[in-house]
Amino acid sequence: MAKAELKSDTKTEIEDSSSLKGTLVSVFFVGFFIVVLWVGVYFLYLDRF
Amino acid sequence: MHMHKFEKIWLIFGVTALLVFLSVLGVSAFYLGNQPPSCLAVVDPTKVDEHETFKEPGLKKVEGKDWDYELVFVAQAFAYTPGTVEVPLGAKVKVIATSKDVIHGFGVAGTNINMMVEPGYISEIVTTFDKAGEYLVLCNEYCGSGHHLMTSMIKVVE
Amino acid sequence: MLKSSLNIKVDRRDAKLVMAHFYVAFIALLVGGLAGLLQVLVRSGKFELPAGIGYYQILTVHGVVLGLVLTTFFIMGFQLAAVSKTAGTFTNKQRTIGWIGFWIMTIGTVAAAVMILLNEASVLYTFYAPLQAHFVFYLGLTLVVVGSWAVGTTIILKYAEWRRANPGQPSPLLTFMALVNTMMWTVATIGVAATVLIQLLPWSLGLVETVNVGVSRTLFWYFGHPLVYFWLLPAYMAWYVMIPKIIGGKIFSDSLARMSFILFLLFSIPVGFHHQLLEPGIDPAWKFLQVVLTFLVVIPSLMTAFSLFATFESYGRSQGATGLFGWLKKLPWKDARFTVPFIGMLAFIPAGAGGIVNASHQMNQVVHNTVWVTGHFHLTVATAVVLTFFGVSFWLVPHLTGRKLTKKMNKLALIQGYLWAIGMTFMSGAMHAAGLLGAPRRSSFSEYGGAAQAAEWIPYQIAQAVGGSILFIAIILMLYIFVNLAFFAPKGEEEFPVGEAANQTEKAPMVFENWKLWLGITVLLILFAYTIPFIDLIKNAPPGAQGYKLW
């Protein structure tokens, strides 16, 4: 896991991507949930007649 | 308008996932024929009993079609006809239903057989009964005070 | 210049108009919540309604009063407050139109409610023909819609006035959002107004014998899906603009927030077929087309998820948070104005994921009209939206009444939010699970002739009753808090939080204010998605259906 130690020198830019790492991981958790639920119900659909 | 790099990554991922979902659904529906029930045929709701298909509800063997049997249900408040029916295991069946009065929801618990039944319209779905067991047919669209008492039973037997 | 119209406090006269809406909304919460409690108890199989009251009558009360009355009144009030705060006090003329709208809506609500209580309209809140309610019920619903148009006019007039006074400037974000939602609502309600006025009202009066069921359902769902976005967008207003200010942070991006609202305007309406996937009379290719459009409306919600997390993380890091998730600890968890809506945001994750499943064409066969769907919209509207509305009430009600949210009330508000989360986890979770097993929605307790499958559903129904009872306690607590904030809390000043964008130099593109363009595309998309299947429904219509009163 990346740590935030490497902050200060890039601080001047707004586009400091390290500062939104938690956001990226969080939204991908949401995306993962969406995919798992969808695939789960799709297999239920395939399994049933 | 400025968008953060991570947001672009997220949206590309999200849109791709949605496209994959749509492709799977589209291929299944248009290529393999797994469309939701969408029959475009109509019937006079006051003359259901005289209609060729609906005058004798129940299971019928048919020849020369893509399916082996036709299973016909007539829905009315608050009952299905037939009230119970046996289907041979592995039979490919076209389930056909209509309503004599209000809207009903023809749902067979534990299966993908689930379609709205509306007065004036014929609803159809083709499926292969490939698992033995007793399947409860119920009404899943509100139709009046006895809605929850409206049932039938499909027994898939060897 | 930009700030010139921003009121520190909502004008007292506007506040009265807003509070009038809130009184109706919270009375609806009491009535509808009580109906909900009775339903879960009946469905547990352990309780029967006292003689004379039908399950479906109670269910109609629950749906109409919470789905239509609570939401519409709260939203109209909230949007009036947001516009009055950010675009300036209403003129007397604008406010009068608002009051006229309020009274028309209220009269309509009372008329419909009386018919339901007289058992003349146990048709549920979707009132599908050919179940036929008393004509006064349809008339009442018409008045609610017409009244909402009048209140919407107040917002549109204020917006137009602001734009005239500030040429070349993007409108205040909250006003912009309220306007988008008002326009979406106006375009969408044309559908329900058409089916009620042209089809159902003459039919229930006996002027015509029969009704075209397919057309009526299609017009209803043309309205029915944007209806749920009409509920959601005010919650998004709070999430995008107010929550950042409450936590002490900034709006992630003003422009992206506007863009997501424009996308909602475009794609919320031409998608009603995903509620009609399993019905005859509509060609499957047109259903699939609307499924594709439905998936497009997911995108602005994906953008919203990112913006919210980014707002939280940026704030946390500005407070010195480190690590991947250290920012979570910096959020003001003890502040109910933040935490209660936050629970709503969390609920929207499974809610949205479930919604994608529902809209997935043939996969709808697995879940359609099962209690899974009930579980789904109790996460969307009855958690994400409603908890956000509660969270808004905690500061907006005292702001309008010149009172303060005390520490004690804040604590009760937090408990209310936690109770909701617990109760809804039980109730909605059990609904989702039972739905996958085939248990139907909108059904009284039944053993279905002793069927083995139906017996499996009963434990889930008991779990729903437990969850529903906890939710009812939370509702009582909320009503106590509302009454306190409206009448008894100590006098003082409560802030109306309006966030500022993180990047103040970035001006929102003026193209977002080009309503000829956006309404034009909206209409084109609607015509594209609906024209041919709608003509089919009329041209190939079966003989019409006569009315039935089966309750």
TrEMBL record, chain A:
Protein name: Cytochrome c oxidase subunit 2A
Domain of life, per lineage: Bacteria
Transmembrane spans: 24-45
Keywords, comma-separated and alphabetical: Membrane, Transmembrane, Transmembrane helix
UniProtKB/TrEMBL annotation, chain B:
One Pfam family named in its UniProt record: COX2
GO MF assignments: copper ion binding; cytochrome-c oxidase activity
InterPro entries recorded: Ba3_CcO_II_C, CcO_II-like_C, Copper_CuA, Cupredoxin, NosZ/Cyto_c_oxidase_sub2
Principal place of residence: other
Keyword Metal-binding in record: yes
Record key words, sorted: Copper, Metal-binding
Keyword Metal-binding included in the entry's annotation: yes
Intracellular or extracellular location(s): Cell envelope
Catalytic activity of the protein: 4 Fe(II)-[cytochrome c] + O2 + 8 H(+)(in) = 4 Fe(III)-[cytochrome c] + 2 H2O + 4 H(+)(out)
SUPFAM superfamilies to which the protein is assigned, alphabetical: Cupredoxins (SSF49503)
Occurrences of domain Cytochrome oxidase subunit II copper A binding (ranges): 55-158
GO CC, alphabetical: cell envelope; membrane
PANTHER family membership: CYTOCHROME C OXIDASE SUBUNIT II, NITROUS-OXIDE REDUCTASE
Function as written in the Swiss-Prot or TrEMBL entry: Subunits I and II form the functional core of the enzyme complex. Electrons originating in cytochrome c are transferred via heme a and Cu(A) to the binuclear center formed by heme a3 and Cu(B).
Protein name, per record: Cytochrome aa3 subunit 2
Species per Swiss-Prot/TrEMBL record: Robertmurraya siralis
TrEMBL record, chain C:
BP GO annotations: aerobic respiration
Cytochrome oxidase subunit I profile domain ranges (all copies): 16-551
Main location: membrane
Membrane topology (UniProt): Multi-pass membrane protein
Keyword set, alphabetical order: Electron transport, Heme, Iron, Membrane, Metal-binding, Respiratory chain, Transmembrane, Transmembrane helix, Transport
UniProt keyword annotation of Electron transport present: yes
Subcellular location: Membrane
Cited InterPro entries: Ba3-like_Oxidase_I, Cyt_c_oxase-like_su1_dom, Cyt_c_oxase-like_su1_sf, Cyt_C_Oxase_1, Cyt_c_Oxase_su1_BS
Family matches, as SUPFAM superfamilies: Cytochrome c oxidase subunit I-like
Entry GO CC: membrane
GO molecular function: cytochrome-c oxidase activity; heme binding
Family: Belongs to the heme-copper respiratory oxidase family.
Protein name as it appears in the record: Cytochrome c oxidase subunit I
